[in-house]
Structures are given as structure tokens and as C-alpha cells.
Amino acid sequence: TAPRTVLLTGAAGGMGTLMRELLPPYGYRLRLFDRRPVDRRTSENAAGEPDVITADLADRKALREAVRDVDAIIHLAGISLEAPFEKILRANIEGTYHLYEAAREEGVRRVVFASSNHAVGFTPRPADGSAAIPVDTPHRPDTYYGLSKGFGEDLASLYWDLHGIETVSIRIGSCFPRPTSVRMLSIWLSPADCARLLHAALTAPDVGHTVVHGSSANTRLWWDLSTARALGYEPQDDSEPYAAELVAAHGELDPDDPEHAHLGGAFCTDPPQWPH
Ligand code: NAI
Ligand code: 15L
Hints:
Rossmann fold; 7-stranded parallel beta sheet; binds 1,4-dihydronicotinamide adenine dinucleotide; Epimerase_deHydtase; oxidoreductase
């Protein structure tokens, strides 16, 4: 049976804000968790009260309450760009560990983990017509941020083998309302497809620990979507309608430009920094 109550961490962020609107139509009741406040009207518990927890992933007591009685967890919270190692350690590495510990203590059986293309960002991007990047490509982080996502995937693998907690780790490409660069044409995940993929990841049976690429069915796709499709994900969107405008403004990607040579793009050369 489909999970009904789902904890959404990172609910105040860009993707969290989009998913708060797009997931309830699939029948989920969301409990929201973020260290920043979110609009309390957007989520209610069975009693019609707001179901929002404003706390840090370092707060183990709050996390334990947050995961109590939920059917599954979508873990989006964390630093989403590059930052000094100590910050990444606290938010992404220790924070994800604390979340899995809380899930184990409270008996939650399914997690969807927001991994990133930057876990494998130094993978050379496929040249036109060459084979797509497979999902079992080795970890090749482009930043401490990407390193923390590889850690999260391995933590998910450990908690499956040791404790029977299932996870779908989604190596998300670029999930924004629209693609804003030529690189993003190849890895864009439309918000509507993101909701489809999360729904598939929450409902597919027997996932153990499964790694999938998270993008729409883009014409210029760089990676293999077969493990995502095997969960029942059927992407409906393609970035190509945005291509003419973006290519006219920025030109096609130059394979000799180091920024364009790898999956991770500018994260490999001049990574955008977490502002907080
Ligand atoms: P975002 O930066 O907009 O949102 C992240 C949220 O996590 C923020 O609201 C922040 O307050 C919260 N947060 C950070 N540290 C926290 C902590 N220690 N305790 C509690 N809350 C904390 O990021 P976005 O774009 O919404 O991404 C969501 C997740 O998906 C992130 O884990 C990100 O790394 C991952 N991802 C996103 C991609 C995208 O294209 N948007 C691509 C690949 C991965
Ligand atoms: C990510 O992992 C970031 O969280 C997001 O802000 C984008 O930069 C995305 O990757 C990307 O590669 O476009």
C-alpha cells in the first residue's frame, strides 16, 4: 500500500516549496521539517492542525519526533552547494546520519534521498552520440558537497543491509521551474517529473537500496534513466523547447572548456558557494 504520511525535510527550500504543492495530489499528507520556517498553512495533520517542525538536523530529539509515525521520508534538507568542509560535515554528513538513526529508532521503512549529479560530477560528460553515463559509474565527487552525497548513498546502502531500511537515492540533475543554462538542458528535472519520480520512489516494491538518475526525458540526455523507469517512473517533460533560446544566448557547450567537460559543470572549476 502507498505511504500516506511522508516527512519532507528541507521543506522551506526551492525543491521543498515546489514539492509541497505537487505531492499532496498524489494522496500524501506531508509533515514539513526545515531549520527555516515554512508557511504553516501548507500542511495539516489528521486533526487539521499544522504539521511543521522547525529544527536543525543536529537536533536529534526533534528529528525523532519528526519521523515518529510517518510511513516514509523524503530527505531534501542540507547544504545544496559547495561550502567549507566543517559545514558540509555537520549538515549533510552528520545530519543525514542523525536522520537515518531516527528512522531506525522509530521503525520507518522507506527513505528517498536527494543525492546529486555532483556525487559523480568529475565524470566526463558524454560526447554527442556516445553512450549515456550508467548509474553504476564510480563515485567521482567534484566538491565536498558532492562527497557528502556519495556518503549519503553509502549510508543508505549500509542501513539497508544492516537494518532493512529501504532507500531510493536520486542523483538529481537540475530541478528548477525551467532550465537556465545549456548544461541544464541535458540534466533538467522538471518539477512535475520530480513529483512523478518521488511518487515512484515511495511506492515501488522491494527497492532495497536503488540509485537512480533524476531528470526529465530530455532530448540532450547525458545519463541512463533505466533504473528510474524500473521503479515505474515515466517522465513526461523534455527541456528541448528551451534549447533555441539558451543556445542563442550562450552558445553550444565547448568540449575543450574545462567547465563544460564534465557532468558537474562549473562545480568542477569554480563551484557556487553556499551563502549562509
Ligand atoms: P535548497 O538549498 O533550496 O533547500 C535546502 C533546504 O534545507 C533549505 O530550506 C535549508 O534551510 C534546509 N537545511 C539546510 N541545512 C539544514 C539543517 N542542518 N537542518 C535543517 N534544515 C536544513 O536546496 P534545493 O535546491 O531545494 O535542493 C533540495 C535537496 O536536493 C538538497 O539536498 C540538494 O543538495 C539536492 N539537490 C538539488 C538539486 C536541484 O537541482 N535543486 C540537484 C541535486 C541535488
Ligand atoms: C545541485 O546539486 C545543486 O543543489 C543545485 O543547486 C544545482 O546546482 C544542481 O546541482 C546542478 O548541477 O545544476
